[in-house]
Amino acid sequence: MTVETSGWPYSFAASEDFPKSNQRGMVYGKLLVRDRFVDSTDMPINGAYVGLAPPGEVGSWQRECKDYQFWTTTDENGVFSINNIRTGNYNLYAWVNGFIGDYRNDSSITITPGCNINVGTLVYEPPRNGPTLWEIGVPDRSAAEFYVPDPNPQFVNKLFLDQPQNKFRQYGLWERYGELYPQGDLIYTIGESNYSKDWFYAQVPRKKEDNSYEGTTWQIKFKLEKVEPSATYKLRIALAGASLAELQVRINDRNKPRPLFTTGLIGRDNAIPRHGIHGLYWLYNVDVAGSLFLEGDNTFYFTQTRSQSPFQAIMYDYIRLEGPNTGSIV
């Protein structure tokens, strides 16, 4: 495999549609991350993903399937080099483990035969309005860090029993939610609960006794010692996947007719029945008026409303509540 990889692009291909090495181009540079609530300086991140894909909106590379993409990862200094790129017009995109959101460079890049383009130092500023009040999960576009149950003994795939990193590759895990929560739904308490044990890897409908399904409402309980009623707080919700689902968010009143936020009907990735741990990435940034919070105990209600099948569900990547920006940063 190493020999074959080093020999690509091949020189023996006779087709005009397969450009040789000297007919391709290269792009290199450095990517830094700027989040002043994490570090006072721009940060190089080892293993950030940087790629060229057809021109489009931020994150459009996820849904592009008719043309070519070329990706690499950064080193410990944030340096990257994308080699052997076909001629054409591209945008440069990136995403970084440990930070939410997507990066896209505004400049279009035109690759010509033999070109060697230095894009210089690029700086990605992830969405951030204020300090982190609390967070659930790890922003890595995967639900793997959450609680994945043991499989039903009737459906065990023995290939993965000794592979904890592949525990999700078992049939029927979605049904275990109803067994763990036969009546009420998941309740997660900030400061007490552990997302690796107490946050189910997918918010799926619950199977009822008549074999139909019903939507589920998860609760996130947290305390705020001080509330600024006139300020705006920010709720960041990153989803690792969604399939014909709808997430509605309410605060401190689960029966309020109109939710604070709804995604609407989203997703067709079917990652859950295909034993996956992520599909397409979704990021929602929700403004929350400080007047909606209480000093002391508060609760977010996350309702997945769609329930025509067991697979209308979402997988979370990461959730964060940010306080108002008071100007106090690292």
From TrEMBL:
Keywords: Signal. Residues 46-118, 132-321 form the Rhamnogalacturonan lyase domain. GO terms for molecular function: carbohydrate binding. This is Rhamnogalacturonan endolyase. It comes from Ambrosia artemisiifolia.
